[in-house]
Write a structure and sequence with these properties.
The complex is a heterodimer of chains A (263) and B (334). The longest helix of chain A is centred in the first third of the chain and has 31 residues. Chain A has one domain. Chain A is built from ten helices and no strands. Chain B is built from eleven helices and 14 strands. Chain B folds into two domains: 174 residues, 3-Layer(aba) Sandwich (Rossmann fold), CATH 3.40.50.300; 71 residues, Alpha-Beta Plaits. The termini of chain B are far apart. Chain B is 34% helix and 26% strand. In chain B, 46% of the residues are buried.
Chain lengths: 263, 334
């Protein structure tokens, strides 16, 4: 019994240290490849400026400033678009033969994917804080308790991870970076726009409103609006939680199964 | 509860040296394509073993099975004494793999690449750093060590890739077409490195399509074609399979190749052929030198203009032809 426990503990320690090593490697890649950094920082900044100063004036969100309505949406968009990179990176490592090398090493099998998702989570924390700063500079204000404010990045990071798993499942299935990029955006783009991200859903035609109301992006954006502006967080809290748990459970299983089947 | 585990079966050959790689009855199919068909082989520790064959012969499939990347359909194999299917983790810590595409992270420096691999072999930080520095020195990459490997030449990337496969000082090194895409100079440099490794005690299995490479490096060669082992032996033994020397005639004008073929065939025991270049006629001959004068006279009187004629020891290409009925370079459906 004692031996088995020691072996398990050692295995868990290696799994952790392998994951950290892989996460570090992926973060170095982010910092050193300008296109990735630009994509994950400049893009959301452009969106927030575009909607605030160009479309914002024409969008009626009822009481309150449009930027206070918009920023929670942009934050979700940032982590969801960023998640595409999880699959692209994995596909790149698969097609370049890097994964073959990793799989021939005595490292933990889970570390390639876990290290990728951990790195993307760290990047999300950074980008979310940056976006909140940019939002603040153009008029966004928190109107909530400190506990609610602290919950904002936590919700975003967890929700972003759910989309990273979807993306990982795509990346490990298509195994080619450009395909993973296309296969990532082709559904994420409409999904983000068919939500409460930029406009209130009641302004949409009935059939679309029905879809938009249950969209995981809508419920998460609504949750964040409640958290940042001190509004109602039910029922969006449990709806967002249910979506997140469901997405992670399903897509992490798909991604890990596909990875184990690699040959 | 005490964990009971089968002691690793250390397969030993009957010869003086233990086998570093043992393969028994290995088969693998991809759909209808039989990539490996009942392959068995032994590689003695401390030797270089060449796996020679054309594209689609099953070389890469065998390397992937031996490095635990791919499960076999049937058959068993042991590398460094460990079963590829049942003791994969122990096996992985004792082997090094350099695949067909140099698995080098372009955004990391050469040093970072090696240190990362060292950490993933579970070396502690200082050991990983020391090994990286040693290998950079050994592969003449010290100057470029702190540059991103994106800036490396093809030869440097290959060297870095090979260095990465050596981080944990593996007992067995598997190299899948290690010199593909390298210029002749870089290829010779890599050959020297591989020879050095073996003289230090490492066992190497390398796959190659280059007959010259197997001849140059390998102590023993297994020739594979369409997933089957078709011959095994030293380069010398394989050459003897062609029963003698090879006479070759190069005509000036390809229109006269058929005429030359006729003349050459009259002087030999058969199997004369025209090479893919359309101007070279070759034929296996016994005591070929004695026939040269007569052949030259006949070609001359037949009005065939030649640019070269000679008798040489058979190349492995000739061996491949003798064994399979087609040359190793011939295009086939894979």
């Amino acid at each position: 019994m004692h031996d088995t426990l020691t072996a398990l503990r050692l295995e868990a320690r290696w799994a952790l240290s392998d994951t950290l090593a892989m996460a570090r490697r992926n973060l170095i890649r982010y910092v050193r490849s300008p296109e990735l950094l630009v994509f994950s920082t400049i893009n959301p900044v452009m969106f927030v400026l575009l909607f605030t100063y160009i479309f914002g004036g024409a969008i009626d969100v009822g009481a309150g400033n449009y930027i206070d309505f918009l920023l929670p949406g942009i934050l979700v968009q940032t982590v969801v678009f960023g998640a595409v990179q999880t699959g692209v990176g994995l596909a790149e490592d698969l097609s370049s033969g890097m994964v073959d090398r990793y799989r021939s090493l005595p490292m933990a099998r889970s570390a390639v994917m876990a290290g990728r998702i951990l790195a993307d989570t760290v990047r999300n924390v950074f980008v979310v804080l940056l976006m909140i700063g940019v939002g603040h500079a153009i008029g966004f204000r928190f109107n909530a308790s400190p506990a609610a404010i602290i919950a904002v990045p936590i919700v975003l990071v967890i929700f972003g991870q759910a989309f990273s798993w979807i993306s990982a499942a795509i990346g490990v299935s298509v195994r080619e970076a450009e395909t993973a990029q296309v296969a990532g955006f082709v559904w994420i783009f409409p999904l983000t726009f068919m939500s409460s991200m930029f406009v209130p859903v009641h302004t949409m035609p009935g059939w679309l409103e029905a879809f938009a109301s249950v969209n995981p992006i809508t419920v998460t954006v609504d949750l964040l609006r409640g958290l940042t502006q001190g509004g109602e967080i039910m029922p969006s809290l449990w709806q967002a939680a249910a979506w997140t748990v469901g997405l992670v459970a399903f897509f992490s299983t798909v991604a890990i199964t596909q990875y184990r089947r690699l040959s | 509860m005490v964990e009971v585990r089968e002691a690793p079966e250390r397969h030993e050959s009957t010869g003086a040296r233990p086998s570093a790689i043992v393969v028994r009855g290995m088969s693998k199919a991809y759909g209808k394509v039989q990539a490996l068909d009942d392959v068995s082989l032994d590689v003695a520790a401390g030797t270089i073993h060449g796996l020679l064959g054309p594209n689609g012969a099953g070389k890469t499939t065998l390397v992937r099975i031996l490095t635990t990347l791919l499960p076999p359909d049937s058959g068993r194999a042991w590398v460094a004494g460990f079963d590829v299917a049942r003791e994969a983790t122990q096996l992985r810590s004792r082997i090094g793999l350099a695949g067909q595409s140099a698995a080098v992270d372009e955004y990391l420096t050469g040093r970072e690449n090696l240190e990362l691999v060292g950490r993933l072999y579970h070396l502690n930080r200082s050991t990983a750093e020391r090994r990286a520095a040693e290998l950079l020195e050994r592969f003449d990459l010290t100057e470029a060590a702190d540059r991103r490997s994106k800036t490396y030449s093809g030869g440097m990337r290959r060297r870095l890739d090979l260095a990465a496969s050596l981080v944990a000082d593996p007992e067995v090194l598997l190299l899948d077409e290690p010199t593909t895409g390298l210029d002749p100079r870089a290829r010779r440099e890599l050959w020297a490195v591989i020879r050095q490794l073996v003289s230090d005690g490492t066992t190497v299995m390398l796959t190659t399509q280059y007959l010259e490479e197997a001849d140059e490096l390998a102590d023993r060669i297994t020739v594979v074609d369409l997933g089957r082992v078709i011959a095994e032996g030293t380069a010398q033994e394989l050459k003897q399979r062609t029963h003698g020397d090879v006479l070759s005639v190069v005509v000036e004008d390809s229109a006269q190749a058929d005429a030359a073929l006729g003349v050459v065939a009259r002087h030999g025991s058969g199997d004369a052929r025209i090479d893919a270049d359309g101007v070279t006629v070759t034929m296996p001959v016994a005591g070929g030198a004695a026939k040269l004068a007569a052949i030259i006279r006949d070609l001359d009187s037949g009005g065939v203009a030649i640019s070269d004629i000679g008798v040489r020891r058979p190349s492995l290409d000739d061996v491949f032809l003798a064994l399979t009925g087609h040359t190793a370079g011939a295009d086939r459906e894979d």
